[in-house]
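Tutorial, part two.
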Amino acid sequence: MRLEGNSAIPEAQRLLASLPHAMVLLEDGLTIAALNPAAEQFFGQSARRLIGTRLRDIMTISDRRLLDRLSDSEAPVSAREVVVQLKGAAPGASISTWRRWRTVRAGRS
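Running the prediction step on this input gives:
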């Protein structure tokens, strides 16, 4: 996970890295700006490979309301029991449930 800017960033990186839940920081266009180790494990790919990738290129979200909320860069998003399908995953291993979903937009405080 790479976040740049001020001196509080290293502490923020340590806190996010220690969280047991997958955390993904999204930029406009639902592009991955940063993620923690739990998200790397969830996606089965490294942060280096995922940063800059559009979320829709690596997973399918079937909940239309969630997709609409994610498309609005001003809308806060929080959801529970979200079923997603990871693209490129082996059959039977591609359906995952995110227990909690919350977005934080890059460049916002």
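Strands lie at 24-27, 31-35, 59-61, 78-86, 95-102, 104-105. In part three we will examine how such features are distributed along the chain.
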